[in-house]
Amino acid sequence: MAEEAKNKKKHIVMVPIMAQGHIIPFLALARKIQHTAATTFTITIASTPLNIQHLKSALSSTSPNQIRLAELPFNSAQHGLPPNTENTEKLHFPQLVKFCHATLSLEAPLRSLISRITEEEGHPPLCIISDLFLGWVNNVANSVSTRNLTFTTCGAYGTLSYISIWSNLPHKKTHSDEFWVPGFPQNHRFHRTQLHRYLREADGTDDWSRFLIPQISHAMKSGGWICNTAEEIEPLGLQLLRKYLQLPVWAVGPLLPPPALRGSKHRSGKESSVTLEACMEWLDLKDENSVVYVSFGSQNTISASQMMALAEGLEKSERSFVWVIRPPVGFDIDGEFREEWLPKGFEEKMRDTKKGLLVQKWGPQLEILSHKSTGVFVSHCGWNSVLESLSNGVPMIGWPLAAEQMYNVKMLVEEMGVAVELTRTVETTICGDEVKKVIDMVMEKEGKGKEMKEKAKEIASHMRKAVTEKGEEEGSSVRAMDDLVMTILSPYSL
Ligand code: UDP
Fold this sequence. Notes:
Elements: H1 2-7, E1 10-15, H2 20-37, E2 41-47, H3 49-59, E3 67-71, H4 96-102, H5 107-121, E4 127-131, H6 137-143, E5 147-152, H7 156-168, E6 178-180, E7 189-191, H8 197-201, H9 207-219, E8 225-227, H10 235-245, E9 249-251, H11 264-268, H12 276-284, E10 291-295, H13 304-317, E11 320-325, H14 346-353, E12 356-360, H15 365-370, E13 374-379, H16 383-390, E14 396-398, H17 405-416, E15 419-421, H18 432-443, H19 447-466, H20 476-489
Parallel strand pairs: 1-2, 1-4, 2-3, 4-5, 5-8, 8-9, 10-11, 10-13, 11-12, 13-14, 14-15
Antiparallel strand pairs: 6-7
Helix pairs in contact: 2-20, 7-10, 7-17, 13-18, 18-19
Bound molecules: uridine-5'-diphosphate.
C-alpha cells in the first residue's frame, strides 16, 4: 500500500466559492498548475453538483483531461434560498449574504472528500487551495495537517482594500466622507461613496460582517495567497498586500485561457445566447476600435431607470455597441428580458440599423474584447473583466456596483490611467447625455481618449511579458508559478 501510494501523483484540492467570477479563474489556475508541473499533480476541483456539471462541460474539450471534479452536496432550499440555487448568478443581490452563509454547510462534505482521498491514496492531499471567501477551509486543512493556500481571484489593490475595509471598518471611526484604510499610505484616501450600501451600514454584527470578517481572518492564517495579477501591473497593490498579510503572495496572473481554449464554453461551461460566429461576423463589419462593449459581469445588473439612460446614451453617441443585457434590479435576474425596460422600439431599431447587438444574459466576452473592432468596455470592473479588457488593450468606462469593484476603478483611474468612472452603484441617477459624453471622451482619437488607449496597450504588453515562458525573458508570473509549485512540493508541518 505504502509503495503504491508513493507512485501516486500528488494531490491538490481546489475549492472556489460558487460564482462564475471565481470558478472561471479557479479553473484557469488549475490548468496553469497542470501546465507548469506537467504530470506532477492530480488536481481535484470541488464544488456543488450544478457547478460541477458546467465544469464538466468546460473540461470536455480538453484532452487528456487531468483535472478531476468532485461533487459537494448542497441543498439551497435548506438555507431559505430558492431550490437548486448553486451559483450567485441566479440570485438577487439581497439574497447573496444568505448564500454566502449557506456555503459554510460545505464543510462536512469537504471533510468527507478529504477522508476519501486520504483513504484511497494513503495520505491526505498535499495542498488545499481555497477561495478567500471560504476561509473556513483553513480549519479543514489544519485538521489533516495539510497546507492551505488562499486564492484571491481579485487584484492585489482590490483585495487589500476589500479585506482591510471589512476587517477594520475604518469609515465607522470618522464622520468625514474621506478616510484612511489600514494597509495603505496615510495620504491615500477612500471615499464613503466607494462603499457598497451594506458595507456603509456594517457594524461588525450584521449578516455580511458575521460572514466576511471570520472568513478573511481564517484566510489570513493560511500559508500564503495566490493572486490573479502580475508584478508589473500592480506594483503598489502587491507591495501593500504583502506587507499587510505578512505572508507570501504569488502573483501568477493574468490567468487567461490560451487561444485554443477561448470560447465561453471552455471557460465556464456556459453557452452564450448568441453564437460566437454570429457575434464575430457582426463585429467584423465594424471599423477598428469603433465598438462599445457593455456588460456588468456574471451576477450584477443596473436599475431600470439607469438601463433606460444607458440605452439613450448609447443611441445618442451614435457608436456601434454590443450589450449583454439582463433584467434590471428588482426583477428575476435569470428571467426573460422585457421590451419595456428599454426605450420604445430600441431593440428593433438597433437590429435594423445594425448599430447595436443586444445579447441576452451571457455573451462571449473574451472574444468580444479580443476583437479589433472593440474600442471601449463599459464595465462594472469585476477583476476578471478588468484583466480581459486590459490584456487586449481596451480602456474602460467604470460603473462599479459591488464587491471590490469600486476599489478596482479607483486604481484603474488613479494608478493606471486606463479608465474613467461614469457612476457608481445602482442607487445613482444618470442621464443619456452623461453616458454619451463619457463614451465620446474615451473614444476620442486625441487627448484623454488617446492617452487611455496608449496606457491600456502598455499594460497589455506588461501582461504578455509577465506570462512569457521561454528564454531569458521568462516573465514574473511564470517565475511566481514555478515558485508556487516548489512551495507546494516542499515539506510541510503545521
Ligand atoms: N462573462 C462572460 N460573459 C458574460 C458575462 C461574464 O463570459 O456575458 C465572464 C467574464 O468574461 C468574466 C466573468 O464572467 O470572466 C465575470 O467575472 P468578473 O470578475 O468580471 O465579474 P463578476 O461576475 O465576478 O462580478
